[in-house]
Design goal:
Chain lengths: 327, 720
């Protein structure tokens, strides 16, 4: 870890003012479960770290206008303990998948959205795109955990967020602040696939801070998350899916299906959504949605299994949303 | 012939073979136990390694000029020099010391090592490709037993398949390293080691190559290791980082701490060789195995490694036709070190898996099949007994179904088993026991407790012998100045150290009995030590409490010596054990995820000294076994030549939620007359084969290679 300056502002504006408009110069610290390891590995080398812990308004989870507000400093444990969050089944199921008490206690929900990819080439210092002699090392390298969708290149890593698929399925927004003011955007718009080394996988400017997540009411919706995870010990999922279905009687009126760990961004599947529309949440329809979700997948040399796993994740998330048992 | 040193008969044992808590448990739980990593001496400097990012190359230059200007820099020593060849990424090039760990890291980062890159190779499973890269060499060609061609001719059912398991790493919780405090002529080394007594000579030899230091004698070195956090076979030597740490201490005149970080630990401080291969087995219709033929290959790094012992256990030279061919693949990965039962876990996979496939083809229950063939092993009766016992523990009779007969629904359940053996010949050991006039008893030797129970087993033996309780015994180990005892490797410690302790304690007690006999006016031979008393067997009214007996010593301390081996010292230990393990698993055939429901283990180790510590060794081996059966794998990238998962995030171990129910049965009162035999290695051998066999039984097809990850399970199902 290189030396850095640490600031602990008490106001959002002061925090935003302390951030550089240039990439990599400053960093925002919430729980630190990702940033600190990136700094120890010298993958991130900020000259200044701006801690958000002292900003009172960023803490806590509360009901707000029929929906729910999750502050930037609200931890995963806060979410699990929150009464306001109980109705958001998809979100709670995603939280339960993070099985480490330490990560739950320190890691924040917003931090989960903004954590950097877990790609082992990136974490070993080869850059986000793992370029070597003009081409990425990933497609013919060790890519068992890499992308099967949105992987036309040059990015092959997967978005590691546990909560983004659920929040996108739930239609959540984030509020982003800079020194001038605030703006809101859908969680989906936080993410992008970088096109060149040096570009990030999110759309935030270096001097912007996500200060909260706003989740709308889920009244009338059935939601669920299913994660394919090898271990019960803290482990990255191999593929996940979150679904949210607005029901009209027994039939799906609107469906949102979002997969995690399959693409450089949380991957919304219009194919799976179409497969569910105007139908019931039966096992057969769940199976069809799962198949549709991965029909366009393009696996790399070593991650063919992820196509099936992602399809199963969608199928089982739909089954869970329909109140059925998955195995 | 019976001697006074023999272990007491079963009816006379009050402590041996019973369950006892580990005596070092409380101080470990309280955090009072100081491991090498915990040593922080006054004025101590911190050292970090500079390692090679290149998997194969030649050093052109090392520039430390920037590093020497880093705040807090105190000195550095080269481990390699310009012109030296590097054979794996992560190889130590230089060690650098600074006043804080952070400054040491900054300084290490500021060193520029210029390396000319050479061709590297890090993959071995595709042996054809490795051959094209000129990386393959024959290592063993062997044929034994009856005529092979005739055996194949006579085989009524044959099976041929591909099996294997990848390279894994030791992943010690306390990484390798030490604190060295060099003051005047004295070199104190707080080393995380399995070989307290061996390190002084090893370090002195290493240091003597440094001309600026001159001659160093082993006698100058004192190794202090009261506690250590796991070795598994990887911590026998001082290693380059230990020598460099001592050089830095000499150079700076300060104590220096150099412990590997997690990435270094996982990359360079030990790996277990892989094994892959094609195996053919044949049997008569009645299940009698008649032939075993294999062509296998593996890597243990650049220098390769030996062949696994194939066929494993079922290796009777008179009855079984055998042909073995093994190839060595030379790779630029961290070098192999001994891993619990070296070569045996691999051999178990390459034998028990094809044999269970053969049993499936024969339409035989593996329990009957393995029992039927037990005559091909060195200890048929032990295995038959253990198979029956283990089957009962896992409810084999009710739960086992034929392969593929696991019902509808995506989750399939299956059972599998494996057998193993290990030698465990006791190492040499010298023990000194003192009985003090105040009644205190101490047992001293330069042994070590790797966290497995040495403190406890020595306490049990001394207390049993003297008629005292476990807390009455003070154990002095973990210091090289004490009487020499062997390194803890190969399951040799408990046999060696309990024998020397028993002999030393009997000798010390004899002397005390002489004093007591005079005082009570009885024959020394008539005296017995029990329940904190020494009394005459012929007249129990003639008795002294232990404290009063010791007071009779006046100001004299009794010293008893005991050695292992000792030709006249009775039959206290042996080598050669058998064990059986069975696994009950569920496999989600849509996701390929395996859940362990239960593992049952039955183990023979001759005479059990402390039942709880023995069981704990088996539990640990099973937990470790679940990890390498399902999760663990060192993943190397051919382009960069680096291990990509040198962390605890993607180098996956098993957690408490992943291991299912574990049930352990130690065989007791059956082979006790053989004496004490080691327990460290045997239970670590079978888990992979047993779990792989259970998965095959559950899903109806063999998943050829371990770890049994979801992608491999789905691929095997898709191929079926």
């Amino acid at each position: 870890m290189r030396n850095f300056e640490y600031l602990a502002p008490t106001q959002v504006k002061a925090a935003a003012q302390a951030l550089s408009e240039h990439e990599g110069v400053t960093a925002v610290l919430a729980g630190g479960t990702d940033l600190l390891s990136l700094m120890k590995q010298r993958v991130a080398n900020p000259q200044r770290v701006v801690g958000l812990r002292g900003i009172r308004e960023l803490h806590g989870i509360a009901k707000q206008g029929g929906g729910m507000r999750i502050g930037a400093m609200a931890t995963i444990q806060d979410l699990l303990d929150s009464k306001a969050a109980g109705a958001y089944t998809a979100l709670m199921q995603a939280a339960k998948g993070i099985t480490s008490p330490q990560i739950r206690a320190m890691g924040t929900v917003v931090g989960d959205l903004l954590q950097r990819p877990r790609c082992w080439y990136y974490r070993n210092g080869h850059g986000l795109l793992a370029m070597h002699e003009g081409k990425s090392m990933v497609p013919n390298g060790e890519n068992r955990y890499h992308a099967i969708l949105g992987n036309k290149g040059p990015a092959y890593f997967v978005s590691a967020s546990s909560f983004a698929p659920a929040l996108i399925a739930l239609g959540a927004q984030v509020t982003v602040a800079d020194a001038e003011g605030e703006r809101q955007m859908p969680v989906k718009d936080l993410f992008r696939i970088p096109g060149a080394e040096g570009e990030r996988e999110n759309t935030l400017k270096p001097n912007e801070i996500v200060i909260e997540i706003l989740v709308p009411s889920v009244s009338g919706w059935k939601t669920a998350t299913y994660e394919v995870r090898q271990r019960r010990l803290l482990d990255w999922p191999l593929a996940t899916a979150s679904v949210a279905c607005r029901m009209s009687g027994n039939n799906v009126r609107d469906a949102r299906v979002v997969m995690g760990h399959v693409a450089p961004i949380p991957w919304r599947s219009s194919e799976a959504e179409t497969a569910l529309k105007s139908k019931g949440l039966s096992d057969g329809n769940a199976e069809a949605a799962g198949k549709a979700a991965v029909a366009a997948a393009t696996p790399l040399s070593g991650n063919k299994a992820k196509v099936q796993l992602a399809g199963v994740a969608v199928k089982r998330a739909v089954m869970l949303a329909g109140g059925r048992s998955v195995v | 012939m019976a001697t006074k040193y023999d272990w007491p008969a079963v009816e006379d044992r009050s402590l041996i073979g019973k369950r006892h808590d580990r005596v070092d448990g409380p101080e470990k739980a309280r955090g009072d136990a100081k491991y090498s990593y915990d040593r922080n001496l006054s004025g101590m400097l911190f050292a970090r390694l500079v390692t090679s990012p290149v998997p194969h190359g030649r050093i052109i230059g090392i520039d430390t000029s920037r590093a020497e200007k880093v705040k807090g820099y105190k000195g550095h020593v080269n481990i390699l020099n310009p012109g030296d060849e590097i054979q794996w990424a992560g190889k130590e090039v230089l060690a650098i010391a600074a006043d804080t760990e952070e400054h040491a890291r900054d300084a290490a980062h500021a060193v520029a090592v210029n390396i000319e890159k050479l061709d590297h190779w890090v993959k071995e499973e595709d042996v054809k490709k490795a051959g094209e890269a000129n990386r393959v060499k024959p290592a063993k060609d062997d044929a034994k037993g009856p005529d092979l061609a005739a055996a194949w001719e006579g085989a009524e059912v044959t099976h041929e398949g591909y099996y294997g398991l990848g390279v894994i790493t030791h992943c010690c919780l306390e990484p390798h390293g030490q604190v060295v405090d060099w003051t005047g002529d004295d070199i104190k080394v707080y080393a995380s080691t399995q070989a307290v007594a061996r390190i002084p000579a090893d370090l002195a030899k290493g240091l003597s190559r440094d001309e600026s230091i001159g001659r160093v004698e082993a006698g100058q070195v004192e190794v202090i290791t009261p506690y250590m956090g796991g070795g598994f076979g990887s911590k026998f030597n001082i290693d380059t980082w230990g020598i460099a740490c001592a050089q830095l201490s000499k150079k700076t005149g300060k104590p220096v701490k150099l412990m590997l970080d997690r990435n270094e630990e996982v990359t360079v401080a030990g790996s277990r060789p892989s094994d892959y291969g094609n195996v053919k087995v044949g049997a008569k219709k009645d299940g009698t195995i008649v032939a075993y033929e294999s062509e296998t290959w593996s890597t243990g790094g650049i220098a390769g490694r030996g062949s696994p012992p194939l066929p494993y256990i079922f290796d009777n030279d008179e009855k079984l036709a055998q042909k073995i061919r093994h190839l060595n693949v030379s790779t630029n990965i961290g070098p192999a070190r001994a891993w619990r039962a070296p070569n045996h876990p691999q051999a178990a996979v390459l034998t028990m898996c094809p044999l269970e496939d053969l049993a499936a083809k024969l339409d035989m229950d593996p329990v009957e099949f393995f029992k039927k063939n037990a005559d091909l092993t060195a200890r048929p009766e032990v295995y038959r007994y253990e198979i029956d016992k283990c089957a009962e523990m896992i409810d084999w009779k009710n739960k086992w179904r034929k392969r593929g007969d696991s019902g509808s629904g995506p989750v399939k359940r299956g059972l599998g088993m494996s057998l193993h053996t290990w030698g465990g010949r006791p190492h040499d050991s010298t023990c000194e026991v003192r009985i003090e006039p105040d009644g205190g008893v101490s047992v001293s030797m330069a042994s070590q407790d790797l966290g497995v129970g040495t403190y406890t087993t020595l306490s049990v033996v001394a207390a049993e012998t003297l008629g005292l309780d476990i807390p009455d015994i003070r154990i002095n180990i973990g210091n090289s100045k004490l009487p020499i005892s062997g390194a803890s490797g190969g399951s040799t410690t408990v046999g060696g150290t309990t024998a020397s302790t028993r002999r030393a304690t009997v000798n010390a007690l004899e002397e005390l009995k002489g004093v007591v006999a005079e005082s009570l006016g009885v024959e020394a031979g008539d005296l017995m030590a029990k329940d904190h008393k020494i009394f005459a067997k012929s007249d129990s009214s003639k008795s002294l409490s232990w404290a009063d007996a010791c007071k009779k010593l006046g100001n004299r301390t009794i010293t008893g010596q005991g050695k292992q081996p000792d030709r006249d010292g009775g039959k206290l230990n042996d080598s050669g054990v058998g064990g059986v393990q069975m696994a009950d698993v569920s496999v989600d055939t849509e996701t390929g995820i395996v859940t362990i429901n239960k593992i049952a283990a039955v183990q023979d180790v001759g005479l059990v000294v402390c039942l709880k510590q023995s069981e704990s060794q088996v539990y640990g081996a099973l937990i470790q076994g679940v990890a390498w059966a399902l999760y663990e794998e060192s993943i190397y990238d051919q382009t960069s030549g680096k291990m990509l998962n040198a962390d605890m995030e993607f180098y996956k171990l098993s957690g408490a939620g992943d291991i299912g129910e574990l049930e352990v049965h130690m065989v007791q009162n059956k082979y006790d007359d053989r004496g004490v035999i080691g327990i460290g290695e045997p239970p670590a051998i079978s888990p992979g084969a047993a779990i792989s066999n259970a998965v095959a039984n559950a899903i109806g097809v063999r998943v050829p290679t371990l770890p049994l990850t979801p992608d491999r399970i789905l691929a095997a199902l898709a191929d079926a």
